[in-house]
Amino acid sequence: MLGGLQHEKVLAYMDDLLIPSSHRRRGDWNTWIYSEKAETELHTDASKLGVAGILFQKQANGDWRPVMYISRMTNIHEQVYHSYELETLAVVESIRRFRVYLVGVHFKVVTDCSAVRATMTKKDLVPRVARWWMELQQYDMEVEYPPGEKMRHVDALSRNPLANVGVVNMAEGHWFLTVQLQDNKAQKIVAQLAEGVANKDLKADYKVTGGRLYRRTKAGDRLYVPAIAKFNLLRMYHDDIGHPGVRRCLELIQQEYCFLKMARFVDKYITSCLRCAFSKGEYGRKARCLHPIEKAAIPFDTGHIDHLGPFSRSRRGNLYVLVVVDGFTKFTLIKVTKTVSTAETVTKLREVFGEFGYPRRVISDRGLAFTSKAFASFVAERGVKHVLNAIATPRANGQVERQNRTILDALATGTEDELSWDEKLPDVMWGMKNMANSATGVSPAQLMFTLNGGRMADLSEGVKAANDNGASFEAEKQLLNRRRRAKENLDRAGETMRTRYDKRRKVATEYQKRDLVLWRGASTTTGDKGVNRKLSNRYDGPYRINKALGSDRYKITTVKGVRGYKKFTAVVASDSLRRYYGSAGGAENVTGDNDIGDGTIGEVRIADCKAVSERANRPAGEAE
């Protein structure tokens, strides 16, 4: 230790090195202090060993004097940089250190690397350098390239850099020891074990080795984790290593650490991780059940409609087909169209329903032709209930989607000339009407017509023609029997399909009104052509649940006050939603008290799917 007098002498010597005594005697302290009004230059240089920079300002007498210095060593990664990248790094690092003095003022960067000056005008840059120059766009600066011999002052600093003594590099074990030393509960246990006053249970559960407190477990001794260290531990083993899932994160932590209800805490932490919520997809069992549409044994009680196309423009100018399927008989009608406009769609539907009668309800997707005000007026005036699918849920209109596939296969295999595909449609439609359906057991035509010449069935009970000797009445009776058997077959097939479907899936999450959720549908668009979105967020939000519609469907709205807010409402399926947690505490209410780490939280049985399905028979997307 230096004495008072020696200390004063050393301090005076250091002052004289930094600011000559002649200036101190004249009171010229201000000439060595930064001034925002003075002309400013930043001299930089770099070597494999380090980067350096000196901030100069021009004094009133015209002299340039140093105001501040920076020098640091390069790390092992930076040491392999190209010399051009090192010189650019010196500029960036110096500006970062002197940012408070350089923002808002014009200054000149002086470097002995001509490539750095040329970078300002280049279009194609190395990604790392491009990021650095983007950072520098906030500064008002120019770059000057002087001869190398004029940069000896800063070159000396780059070749003799200061060690990074200011960087804290504490080993994990040492950090954890300091955490235990600050925890009252841990120190109380350590003291009891050291003084020999601990009871048998305490001795059986804990031990002290190397000054650290360990918990005895069946898998071996594990470091005791104080409450204040839990979040830091999860950041290290989840956030910093790529956001692994609950199971893998838990297994990794259990190798060295132990604390009560670890699995529950890990599950809550990862469930409430916003980065995981927005960026990760859904894996494993799909969270949805099948909800078969209730079918009445009446032709055209429910009609399924959809547009298929576009195809190649035919010689007749057609591009699309409008497909109409009867939900009970599977009777399919195909109308060619030139557009998918509402006007042409309504015209074609008038032709179909004018011949077979208007259905009680029609089910469609959310194509522009079906969501317009004109279409809504068309169905409302005729007392038809219009059901719109949930967004991005084609399975909700599976009757017509299945027929679309049949039509495509038939046209692809039976059409030799792409310009005449619409001429083949009558033959395709005839075949679809007369082939037996696997669900009903008979062809659509047999359920739609009687057997006498294919005329429409007259179901008026007890009425028969004067000259058919009862044949008409018998045909109608057979038709009713076929429809009854078809209805039984459909119900049986629907139950079999639901059991098979639900066996591979789990019950969808149920949401309540005003719950906050994230929505996958908002991120399904491809966006700009050529833009790679592999690392983009898979979910968007948060949105608020406005109404539960049944059959795992919800009406969601945007939340006012969220960045980029724009009023928006949509009907979506539950499997495209994810619960939004603002904090780990928000996940506590739905996580439960399971102190496990095997990923079985929320295990679902087929019976659960069946119970949920029975609560609602409306098709997905049905409007309230």
From TrEMBL:
<protein>
    <recommendedName>
        <fullName>RNA-directed DNA polymerase</fullName>
        <ecNumber>2.7.7.49</ecNumber>
    </recommendedName>
</protein>
<dbReference type="Pfam" id="PF17917">
    <property type="entry name" value="RT_RNaseH"/>
</dbReference>
<keyword id="KW-0540">Nuclease</keyword>
<dbReference type="InterPro" id="IPR036397">
    <property type="entry name" value="RNaseH_sf"/>
</dbReference>
<dbReference type="GO" id="GO:0004519">
    <property type="term" value="F:endonuclease activity"/>
</dbReference>
<dbReference type="InterPro" id="IPR012337">
    <property type="entry name" value="RNaseH-like_sf"/>
</dbReference>
<dbReference type="Pfam" id="PF00665">
    <property type="entry name" value="rve"/>
</dbReference>
<dbReference type="GO" id="GO:0003964">
    <property type="term" value="F:RNA-directed DNA polymerase activity"/>
</dbReference>
<dbReference type="InterPro" id="IPR050951">
    <property type="entry name" value="Retrovirus_Pol_polyprotein"/>
</dbReference>
<keyword id="KW-0548">Nucleotidyltransferase</keyword>
<dbReference type="InterPro" id="IPR041588">
    <property type="entry name" value="Integrase_H2C2"/>
</dbReference>
<keyword id="KW-0255">Endonuclease</keyword>
<dbReference type="InterPro" id="IPR041373">
    <property type="entry name" value="RT_RNaseH"/>
</dbReference>
<dbReference type="InterPro" id="IPR043502">
    <property type="entry name" value="DNA/RNA_pol_sf"/>
</dbReference>
<dbReference type="Pfam" id="PF17921">
    <property type="entry name" value="Integrase_H2C2"/>
</dbReference>
<dbReference type="GO" id="GO:0015074">
    <property type="term" value="P:DNA integration"/>
</dbReference>
<dbReference type="GO" id="GO:0016787">
    <property type="term" value="F:hydrolase activity"/>
</dbReference>
<feature type="domain" description="Integrase catalytic">
    <location>
        <begin position="295"/>
        <end position="452"/>
    </location>
</feature>
<keyword id="KW-0695">RNA-directed DNA polymerase</keyword>
<keyword id="KW-0378">Hydrolase</keyword>
<dbReference type="GO" id="GO:0042575">
    <property type="term" value="C:DNA polymerase complex"/>
</dbReference>
<dbReference type="InterPro" id="IPR001584">
    <property type="entry name" value="Integrase_cat-core"/>
</dbReference>
<dbReference type="GO" id="GO:0003676">
    <property type="term" value="F:nucleic acid binding"/>
</dbReference>
<keyword id="KW-0808">Transferase</keyword>
